[in-house]
Design goal:
two-stranded antiparallel sheet; alpha+beta; membrane; 407 residues; 14 helices; 2 domains
């Protein structure tokens, strides 16, 4: 029997028992969909963090009181006891770091913003030094950024995100409009480029003001985050980090052999740690989801055994007409493989749809990994063939005389 004839017979058999075929496919569909969803969301999360870190650039690192990632309450308590990173630290690095190409500092908090009688809450207020917009790659679509002189004198000027224009200013031109941030008046001099939403949170709901203006309102006792741009990535960045670490340790009188009393975070270190965590999550979640594939394979084997029993007389007739054992074997193996492949295709589509749905509703980033799509189809087909061999062998081994006598 040619394989095309076996494929045709398999399609006819599956079509005759449509409901049973659909129910049999559920295990494979769920397994493949779960794997595709997990891989898609993990890749999306990695791509998102990579993109956010690259907002500063691969040649930028931070100096702060606490690290970006804290894994326990005990760590949080220990870091809280550290001295704050202050403006003097920023000025020391800015003036004394030989390898540093660019140095900035910032603070931030959530505030309410008013314009006339209208107001919005939950706005991200960022107090920045003059060079911070360059470190953040802020693209100004209207107006300008504040100058070093305006930072030095604590000018009440601000750069806003597009949410402020749309939600507070009703779409009007924001330039030279006055807004009140926690009751303090600022004049808008610029507006940033729209960035959209991430994880359901808007990236455009912000107001940027000079750091000195921020500190005039909220005080200078809070810790700063210092951003440093090195001469390049890799070894050059590590050398720059070592220079800044030495300066900070000397200024803080950290003793030889003791841990730093501050945190120096290289982007590539944080990215590597984050990817390790997400890959570990994927390494755990994918095998758990793959259990559904095994269950689906067992269901396929069970249904194929039932099918062999139901079609015993058909098998006897085919053998009486000259069908060989390998012809019967091929027919049933193709039937089970085809069933699993169909489940794999539906599972891939469903998994991508689930990832897209989560991305749309929750703003969670997604990135389709085509290797996972190919792997899902390959594994699902392999599961169908593997679990279909035993029923196919049972069919091929039937005695034709016994089979013809079957009712």
């Amino acid at each position: 029997m040619h394989w095309t004839e076996a494929l045709k017979l398999a399609l006819q058999s599956l079509w005759v028992n449509k409901l049973r075929t659909v129910l049999t496919l559920l295990g494979v569909v769920i397994g493949v969909a779960a794997v595709i969803s997990v891989v898609t969301l993990v890749n999306g999360a990695n791509a998102y963090v990579d993109a956010k870190l690259n907002t500063y650039g691969s040649d930028v690192f931070t100096v702060s009181k606490m690290p970006n990632l804290i894994t326990s309450f005990a760590e949080y308590t220990r870091y809280q006891k550290r001295r704050n990173v202050i403006a003097e630290d920023f000025r020391m690095i800015e003036a004394g770091c030989k390898r540093c190409k660019l140095v900035g500092a910032g603070q931030g908090k959530q505030v309410s913003v008013k314009s006339g009688t209208d107001s919005v809450t939950g706005v991200s207020l960022r107090g920045w030094t003059a060079r911070m917009p360059e470190l953040n790659n802020i693209n100004i679509t209207e107006g300008r950024i504040f100058t070093p002189t305006e930072v030095e004198h604590g000018a009440r000027v601000a750069v806003v995100g597009t949410d402020i224009q749309e939600n507070l200013l009703k779409g009007d031109d924001p330039i030279n409009k006055e807004i009140r941030v926690d009751g303090v008046p600022y004049t808008i001099i610029g507006m940033g480029e729209k960035q959209g939403k991430t994880l359901g949170s808007s990236q455009d709901n912000y107001v940027i003001v000079p750091l000195t203006s921020y500190q005039h309102t909220y005080g200078s006792s809070k810790t700063l985050t210092i951003y440093v741009k090195g001469p390049g990535a890799g070894a050059a960045l590590e050398e720059t980090g070592d220079e800044v670490r030495s300066m900070m340790r000397n200024a803080r009188h950290d003793r030889l052999g003791e841990d730093d009393s501050f945190t120096l975070d290289l982007n590539n270190t944080f990215l590597s740690l984050f990817k390790t965590v997400t890959n570990l999550f994927g390494a755990i979640a994918i095998p758990v989801a793959a259990i559904s594939l095994i269950v689906g394979g067992i269901v396929i084997m069970n249904i194929m055994l039932v099918s062999v029993t139901e079609r015993t007389r058909e098998i006897g007739v085919r053998k009486a007409l000259g069908a060989r054992r390998r012809d019967i074997l091929l027919q049933f193996v193709i039937e089970s493989g085809l069933m699993a492949t169909a489940g794999g295709i539906i599972g891939v589509l469903f998994g991508v749809a689930v990832g897209f749905g989560i991305s749309t509703v929750a703003g969670f980033p997604m990135s389709i990994a085509w290797w996972s799509v190919a792997a899902g189809l390959f594994v699902s087909t392999g599961v169908g063939v593997f679990f279909g061999v035993y029923p196919a062998r049972q069919a091929a081994m039937l005695d034709p005389i016994t089979a013809l006598r079957s009712d």
